Task: structure prediction
Amino acid sequence: MKKLLLLTLVLTLNVMALTPEAEKGKLAISACLACHNAELTPAKAPPFYGVQNKYKQAFSEKQMFILAISDWAKNPTIENSLMKRPIKKLGLMPAMPLPDDMLAQIGAYLYEEDFEPPCTHWANDLKKASGSQSQGKGMGRGKGQGGKGHGKGMGQGGNHDAMIRMKYNQLCK
Ligand code: HEC
Result:
């Protein structure tokens, strides 16, 4: 039991403390927050909470993660994108060719920070999903139905909305 407490404590401290590199990134990232501010309505870019998730899934190793973020910022292309959905909604991100060391710091910060769940952003997404497209509802429920074969696009949209709703209910209420 004591061990468990200690482990929890160590993990917690670990999550909170940023490396000096990431501390610099935390300042430099203001250049990105003009768009990646999770509170903006309407959104101008996906919040870093989701970006971090996506990139950690693809690049769990820190140096690879940092490289991927730097490469992306210097040269965003559809082929290199891991987040196709935001491109459809918001267009491709413009290049942000900052100096390499600054991009590495930003990458380190994006890797280390424990971002707040983007509740405003999710709430807006859910409002849109239930309002404008009548698709939204049917799809959310019809997971079983649309699972195979027809309506792949719809099925995915429904899963996406359902996933956001689940995360919103879990983390924002
Ligand atoms: C002018 C607005 C704007 C600025 C400034 C901006 N971004 Fe973005 N970013 C976007 C948009 C829009 C998307 C979603 C579309 C896309 O992926 O291209 C995006 C997506 C991303 C993604 C996900 C890319 C993918 O699809 O795999 C990363 C990573 C990212 N931005 C990093 C950054 C970093 C780092 C900075 C600062 C150096 C930055 N952005 C500055 C608008 C911006």
